[in-house]
TrEMBL record:
Name the UniProt record assigns to this protein: ABC-2 type transporter domain-containing protein
Phylogenetic placement of the source organism: Eukaryota, Sar, Stramenopiles, Ochrophyta, Pelagophyceae
Record's keyword annotation contains ATP-binding: no
Gene Ontology terms: cellular component: membrane
Topological category with respect to the lipid bilayer: Multi-pass membrane protein
Keyword annotations from UniProtKB, A to Z: Membrane, Transmembrane, Transmembrane helix, Transport
Amino acid sequence: MAVELAANPSILFLDEPTSGLDSRAALVVIRAVANISASGRSVICTIHQPSYALFSTFDYLLLLKKGGHTVYFGPLGNECSALVGYLNDAAKDLGYELPPLQGGTNPATWMLTVCEQKVADFSLAYQNSPLGKHNTDQVAQAQIPDPQSEPLTFDTEFAVDDMTQYFLCCKRLAITYWRSPAYNVPRLMVSIFLAYVYGSCYMYKVDDLSDSVSRVAFMFMTTFNQGVIYCNVAIPVMAAERASFYRERASRFYKVGPYAASFTIVELPFLIFFSLVFVACVFSIVDMYSGIDKFLWYWAFYFSYVTLLTFMGQFLVVALPNFETAQSVASTFFSIFACFCGFTIAPDDIPSGWKFLFYANPAHYVLEGQVVTQFRNVHQKIIVPGLSDEWTLSRYMTSGNSDSYWSGVYTWGHRYGNIVTLIIFFCGIRFATILAFTKIAYVTR
């Protein structure tokens, strides 16, 4: 009610404002509605099975039967005398006698009881009654424009320009995120906790081939599992925001573009900070190869993946009916990403019919980028079973040789292409989200 009144409407529409409230709270709400009406503002309110205290507060009643047919539209009168008198007269005109309204009986209950009788068609009686004809004439008269009036027009569809919409949407969402510790604090705490859990399991140096494969598993587990967590956390938050979006879009508060863009603009600083904290914790405890370039490369690919999965979760909420369905579909994507990224199944061992999932998989480009940038220029000698000459870790993990660990699929030269591919994935998922916001609406009423 307060949000609607902020727009200073000439008519206030309320849909079941007392639903779910006890009798005292419902009476408080109705008294507030009566005070609004007393200030000179028209209030149209739907209400189901009210008590007498609530029912008697209203001035006029529009009573509808199943099918949307009008049974009564007029004043209630003192102690509902106008309503009771009309129904009694209408029943007599139809040749039917209504049971009298007993003392202490709620007129609303009596009204619903007598109107449920199939003997008398009160909607037909209303159409033929003087009251019904009078109301019809008033509606027809109200539809005739004043000869001196001009059509109501607006220069723009929305009250403010696009830049103001972007600014206000971002400001509001930033305040919402700042006031949502249940969303952001767990993401930070989980990032720190899991960084040290994973790190404590991989503190050793890479001395041989087995250790290098374990280090690849560490890269896969940290990045992939964090992406799953970020996606699952984002889904219920976006589901709550979606409900308000439907209401505000119907009121023409803003365009879809500024609203969707605000999630990108506001979410990114949090993701940048959380990902930097996670990677810094990992590098502080795990014996990763030194170099600021390796830190930045690892962070870039980790940040890209958790960002992409966060926005994928938001897209699924917008595109699907509810967040339970979104979580189920997201779990399917997690399985596909894990299976076809090149770690669970070697790239050369993926069946040709499923090869497209390897190239359409963002986890593939993230894992490749992390592996080749971390093992690049690592000249430690290793012995590879089945190969006669000695290899370096850099050559075995990052070269395009067909007998390398990745059969030449993961190479150092792909690192920039991997970043570009992830940016394309990111832009695609944001565009799909805007399209879903524009074309899809799961409005139940």
